[in-house]
Amino acid sequence: MDSIVVRGNGPLSGQIPIAGAKNACLALMPATLLSDEPLTLTNAPRLSDIRTMTELLASLGAEVTALQDGKVLATSCHGEINPVADYDIVRKMRASNLVLGPLLARLGHAVVSLPGGCAIGARPMDIHVDALSALGAEIELKDGYLHAEAKGGLKGAVHELRFASVGATENFLMAASLAKGTSVLKNAAREPEIVDLAKCLRAMGAQIEGDGTSEIVIEGVDRLHGATHPVVADRIELGTYMLAPAICGGEVECLGGRIDLIESFCEKLDAAGVSVEQTHTGVKVSRKNGRIRAVDVVTEPFPGFPTDLQAQMMALLCTAEGTSVLEEKIFENRFMHAPELMRMGANIEVHGGHATVHGVEKLKGAPVMATDLRASVSLILAGLAAEGETVVSRVYHLDRGYERVEEKLKGVGAHIERVKAS
Ligand SMILES: CC(=O)N[C@H]1[C@@H](OP(=O)(O)OP(=O)(O)OC[C@H]2O[C@@H](n3ccc(=O)[nH]c3=O)[C@H](O)[C@@H]2O)O[C@H](CO)[C@@H](O)[C@@H]1O
Ligand SMILES: C=C(OP(=O)(O)O)C(=O)O
Fold first, then answer.
1. Matching SUPFAM superfamilies, A to Z (predicted)?
2. Ligand 2 centroid – CA 307 distance (Å)
3. Per residue in 77-95, pLDDT tens?
4. Å from CA of 332 to ligand 2 middle
5. What pLDDT shows up at residue 288?
C-alpha cells in the first residue's frame, strides 16, 4: 500500500486547480441509466471512486468511456440492462446505492446490495427505502440485498424525508423524473451536488423545480434524452486546499473555486484569522497576521458547515490559540483522525459527538494511519504544520476523493512525496 511523506512547511504560494466534485459526479453517472441516449459529463474528477462507479455501471449494462485523460465521461445505456447491483462492487463504495432509483424508474424493478456500514458510521438505507416506497415501489430486504419492484411503474407522490439525506434526495429525484404524475419532496437536502444533478436531469428533459430549497417539485416525463453536463466544482476539495495556506502561511489561489459553495466554512476561516477572497478565476486564501484563533464548529446539512470538512478543520485548529469545540452531527463515528492527530502532539478530548481541541504551539511529525477519506487528508494538512516528517499510511482512502494530491500541493511549494508500495 502506498504512503505519503510530508515535511513541515514554510509559507505556500501559487495556484491549485480544483477538480469537478466527486460527490456530484457519483450521482450524475447513474443518471445514464434513465435514458437510452448518451450522457456526457465534462469536468469529471479522476478518482478511484469514479472508476468504481464505472465498474458498477458496466456490470449493469451501461458503457462509460473516459476521454481526455478521464476529464470527460461519455456514458450510454441503450442495450439490455441487468437489474442486479452485486455486493462485490457495491461494498466498495456507499454511493453505489445511487443506482437504485434509476434502475427502478427505467426497469420497474431492481436488486441492489446493501452497501454495509463504513468507518464513519452505520449509514443505513431506511430513508432511501421510505422515499422510493412513497413512489409506489415495494422494497424488501433479502440476503443482504434490497429487492425493489414497482408493479405498473412508479407514481408521483408527496413525501417528506425524516432527515434531509443527500443520497435519498438524489435517488428520489432520479426516480420521480420518470414517474407518472407530480412528486413533491419535502425536507429535501439542499447540497450543491443536488442542484447539479437537477440541472443535468433538466438538460435531459426532466421537469424539476425547487432544487437547492427544502421542497422539490418533479413533474414526471415519459422519457429522458441525452445531454452534456459540466460537473460542478468540488467544494470539499476546495475547502481542503484552502486550509493549506491557512496552516502554513503564504497565499494560494484555488482555481475554479466558488465561495458560494462553502460560505459557512469561509465564515469559520474568517473567524480563525484567515483571509478569503473570491477572484475572477477562483478563491484566494492567505493567513492574516498572527496565530490562528480557536473557533467552534458544528457540522450540519447544507448550508451548514460540511461534515466532509470537519477533519481538515480540526487539523487547522490543533495549533490555534485557545480551545475549539467541534460537534459532529451527521455521522456518529467521524473523529477517527483525532487519535492520529494526538500521535503528532495535538491535545484533543473526544466525548461522543464532541471533540475539544486545546491548541498547542507546534505539532511533531509521526507515523500515522489514514482511516477514511477526509481523515487521510487531515493528516497530510497536519503534517504540513508539524516539525519533522509525517508518514501517512493506507492512503488508498485518499485516492477515492483527491486527484494528484501530491502534485497539487507540491505545485504551491509543499514538501510532500508518495512512496509507492513495493
Ligand atoms: C457520495 C456522497 O455524496 N457522499 C456524501 C453524502 O453521503 P450520503 O448521501 O450517504 O449522506 P446522507 O445525507 O444520506 O447521510 C446523512 C446521515 O443520515 C443517515 N441516513 C442516511 C440515509 C438513510 O437512509 N438513513 C440514515 O439514517 C446517515 O447514516 C448519516 O448519519 O452526504 C454526506 C452528508 O453531507 C457526505 O458526508 C458524503 O460525502
Ligand atoms: C463520506 C464521503 O464519501 P462517501 O459518502 O462516498 O463515503 C466523503 O466524500 O467524505
1. EPT/RTPC-like (SSF55205)
2. 10
3. 999 999 999 999 999 999 9
4. 14
5. 86
Longest dimension (CA), the chain: 66
- CB 345 near ligand 1, within 6 Å: no
Task: State whether the beta carbon of 192 lies less than 6 angstroms from ligand 2.
Answer: no
- The alpha carbon of 400 and the centre of ligand 2 are apart by a number of angstroms equal to 9
What the block records as the C-alpha cell of 71 is 476529464
Judge if pTM exceeds 0.90.
yes
User: In ligand 2, which atom is closest to the CA atom of 118?
Assistant: 7
Find out whether 308 is annotated in a ligand binding site. yes
Cis status of the peptide bond prior to 83, with omega within 30 of 0: no
Determine whether the shortest distance from the Cβ of 163 to ligand 1 is under 6 A. yes
Identical fold at 3-18+233-419 and 22-230? yes
- SS3 state of residue 110: strand
| Average of per-residue pLDDT values in the chain | 96
pLDDT in tens, 259-318: 999 999 999 999 999 999 999 999 999 998 889 999 999 999 999 999 999 999 999 999
Architecture of domain 22-230: Alpha-beta prism (3.65)
Q: Which ligand is nearest to the CA of 123?
A: 1
- Helix or strand holding residue 354 (H, E): strand 354-358
For domain 3-18+233-419, give the fold: UDP-n-acetylglucosamine1-carboxyvinyl-transferase; Chain (3.65.10)
Residue 210, pLDDT above cutoff 80:
yes
- Give the ligand at the shortest distance from the Cα of 114: 1
Residues 6+ apart with CB under 8 A from 11: 245, 248, 249, 250, 251, 413
The domain segmentation of the chain, as residue ranges, is 3-18+233-419, 22-230
